[in-house]
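Hi F.,

I've been meaning to write this up properly since the lab meeting, where we talked about keeping a consistent format for the predictions we share between groups. The idea is simple: the sequence comes first, exactly as it goes in, then the C-alpha cells exactly as they come out, then a line or two of notes. No screenshots and no reformatting. I'm using this chain as the first example so we have something concrete to point to.
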Amino acid sequence: MKTVNIHEAKTHLSRLVEDAAKGEGFVIAKAGKPMVKVVPLDEAPAEEPKKKRRIGFLEGQFFVPDDFDTMFAQEIEEMFYGDHK
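Output, unedited:
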C-alpha cells in the first residue's frame, strides 16, 4: 500500500481518491508517521428504507359524529358563563 505525506495528499487528492476507488488504497502520513488509511468502499452504504404508511388501515373502526364541531358546546359555555337560561 502506497504512503503519501499530507502535502502530497492535498496536492493530488482527486487522483488519489480515484485510484483508491479503483482498489488502490493509500496511507496518509504526517512527518513519516502513518495517520489514516484510505480504502475503497465495498459498496455505497444503503439508505434505510422508508416505512410505508398504511393509509386507511383503521377504516371502519372509528366514527366521527355529525355534531363533532359543536359537541358539548352548551356544556362548555355553561362552564364559562354559568347557566343563564
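Notes:
The radius of gyration is 34 Å.
Strands lie at 2-5, 26-30, 33-38.

If this format works for you, I'll send the rest the same way.

G.
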